[in-house]
């Protein structure tokens, strides 16, 4: 990162819910927060629980983004639609008092091909948002 001109940065790999909550209690804030959780559901039956988890995770993450910063967030849960995922992200941000402007959206790269005959191969949703306070 320093070779690319990024001098002051930190990378944290930990339990997201616990760590994001702790960072908020410490009044920390960041220009960029990246959320890349494991799949929150393996079946359609648990999609409502997964959506609650995405809402909570993105609320915690959005709380930490400085005004005019960025939130990058992903879902690798096949059973969660992009529409439902983005709605959960939006709800979490609103609960954090943040407004999101979508600046980029993506899916998995070519080395993880989507086979039209196998819908479960279309699993990755990624979105990057410009974040402002409400």
Describe the structure.
- The protein is of the alpha+beta class and about 130 residues long.
- It is about 30% helix and about 25% strand.
- The chain is built from 3 helices and 4 strands; from the N terminus they run αβαβαββ.
- It has helices at about 15-25, 45-65, 80-95, and strands spanning about 30-35, 65-75, 100-105, 125-134.
- A 4-stranded mixed β-sheet has the order 1-2-4-3, covered by helices on one side.
- Helix 1 runs parallel beside helix 2.
- The radius of gyration is 15 Å and the shape is globular.
List the helices and strands and how they pair.
Elements: H1 16-25, E1 30-35, H2 47-64, E2 65-75, H3 82-95, E3 98-106, E4 125-133
Parallel strand pairs: 1-2
Antiparallel strand pairs: 2-4, 3-4
Helix pairs in contact: 1-2, 2-3
Percent of residues in helices: 25-40%
* Widest β-sheet, arrangement of strands: 1-2-4-3
Helix/strand order = HEHEHEE
Question: Count of DSSP helices?
Answer: 3
Strand content: 25-35%
Terminal residue distance: 31 Å
Mean pLDDT: 94
Mind describing the biggest β-sheet? 4 strands, mixed
Number of strands: 4
Broad shape: globular
| Poorly predicted regions | none
Q: Please give the radius of gyration in angstroms.
A: 15 Å
Give the structural class: alpha+beta
């Amino acid at each position: 990162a320093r070779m690319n001109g990024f001098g002051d940065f930190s990378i944290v790999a930990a339990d997201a819910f616990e760590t994001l909550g702790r960072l908020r209690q410490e009044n920390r804030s960041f220009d960029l927060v990246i959320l890349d959780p494991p799949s929150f559901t393996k079946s359609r039956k648990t999609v409502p629980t997964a959506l609650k988890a995405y809402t909570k995770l993105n609320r915690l993450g959005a709380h930490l983004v400085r005004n005019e910063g960025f939130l990058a967030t992903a879902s690798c849960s096949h059973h969660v639609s992009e529409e439902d995922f983005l709605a959960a992200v939006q709800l979490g941000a609103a609960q954090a008092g943040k407004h999101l402007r979508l600046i980029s959206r993506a899916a998995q790269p070519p080395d993880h091909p989507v086979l039209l005959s196998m819908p479960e191969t279309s699993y990755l949703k990624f979105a990057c948002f410009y974040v402002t306070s409400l």
